[in-house]
Amino acid sequence: MVLIDGKATANQIKNEIAEEVKAIQSKGERAPHLAAVLVGNDGASLTYVGSKVRSCEKVGFDSSLIRLPEETTEAELLTKIKELNQDDTLDGYIVQLPLPKHIDEEKVLLAIDPKKDVDGFHPSNFGRMALELETFIPATPFGIMQLIERYDIDTQGKHVVVIGRSHIVGRPISILMSQKGAYGNATVTVAHSRTKDLKSLTQQADIIVSALGVPGFVTADMVKKGVVIIDVGITRVEDASKEKGYYITGDVDFDSVAQKASFITPVPGGVGPMTIAMLLKNTLLARKWNA
Question: What does pTM read for this prediction?
Answer without folding.
Answer: 0.95
